[in-house]
Amino acid sequence: MPDTVLITGGAGFIGRHLAAALLRRGHEVRVLDSLIEQVHGGRNTPADLPADVEFLHGDIRDEAMLLRALKGADHVVHLAAEVGVGQSMYAVDRYVSVNDHGTAVLFQQLIRRPVRRVVTASSMSIYGEGLYRDADGALHEDVLRRPRGSADASWDPLDAQGRPLEPVPTPESKRPSLASVYAITKYVQERMTLTLAPAYGMEGVALRLWNVYGPGQALSNPYTGVLAIFASRLANDERPMIFEDGRQRRDFVHVEDVARAFLLALEHPAAPGEVFNVASGTDRSIRDVARDLAAAMGKPIAPEITGKARAGDIRHCIADTRRIQHRLGFASQRDFAADLAALASWVARQEARDRVQQARRELEQRGLVA
Fold first, then answer.
1. CA geometry: angle at 248 spanning 247 and 251, to 5°?
2. How far apart (Å, rounded) are the C-alpha atoms in residues 322 and 74?
3. At residue 121, what are phi and psi to the nearest 5 degrees?
4. What's the pLDDT band for 370 if we cut at 50, 70, 90?
5. Residue 103 included in any domain
6. pLDDT tens digits along 219-246
């Protein structure tokens, strides 16, 4: 008899791709999702969810709905969360309620109806600034950036002698440095999973996701992945907006790679009790990515470099992917240039409402951009 996997928040971008992958593996899939307007645009039914998925429309904080969703489930993939570093800095109660209280309600019901394995989506944001190396070769894992004192000051973190620090791949062993409310809530989700699952005879796994991209991401959500935000701007013939100087570096991982990582986390015997970085293993500057996407979309539009910082953002965080590669056999199988072309083709068939300026005004009105 096939296993049944419950995906909380499974009607979202990652959840839909994961549901399709699970079905191909022979699992039965149930999805619980509240279809929030910011992500789903006011739909009452999910878009592009595979037909064979059992869909339940409900909130992760609804105990009765959760018990219904857990009935007969063998595993849980916990994706339900509010997502957005900037927005979390002013919608504090909303983020904490959905992300942390929602996870608490989930585990309260799992105590009554346990499953074999719970895999929770965490985030690279919990690291804050990534790992750095100074000019003498020493590693620094507790880097904090101070506000720039002048317009010509460095955006990059400096050592005690005022020398620039070099970002290096960040392993799972780095101490967290929680620079936003979103990061705090994701760390709580992660620790609840790894603490409560084994306490009640279940297996727990947490995946720290880097910048996920691909077709199907919400183009009208100004707090979603940066590539989707850039694509929405370009589709409306507007300049992609980049904070700071655009040289901050990130790792972009395709959603199909992410779905494959979740499959391994669900099925591999070496996964329980562990935290894994999920990334491509290649870092790129935000400015270069904006220009590459514009070229792929046939939009000769240069990005707007604001020269301003946003509260909660970090400068560099690039991924060390050796743990997931060695223990679970995961490595990215995607070609970034080809995937950008595929993303551009998909965006051309969509309608994207550009809400970036609205989001920027909300941040500026609260003093969160400087």
1. 120
2. 29
3. -80, 110
4. low
5. yes
6. 777 777 788 889 889 999 999 999 999 9
Domain that holds residue 320: 4-214+252-282+314-332
Q: Are 228 and 291 in contact (CB under 8 A)?
A: no
Those residues with Cβ within 8 angstroms of residue 37's Cβ, 6 or more apart along the chain or in another chain: none
Please answer whether residues 281 and 135 qualify as being in contact, where contact means their C-beta atoms are separated by less than 8 angstroms.
Answer: no
Both tokens assigned to 34: 């509240």
Nearest to 110 by CA among 197, 207, 204: 197
Whether residue 254 has pLDDT greater than 70: yes
158: CATH = 3.40.50.720
Q: Which residues pair with 204 in a beta bridge?
A: 118
Rounded CA separation 213/257 (Å): 10
* pTM metric for this prediction: 0.94
Query: What gap in Å lies between CA 347 and CA 208, rounded to an integer?
Result: 27
Q: Give yes or no for residue 258 having a pLDDT over 80.
A: yes
Which amino acid is residue 139, in one-letter code?
L
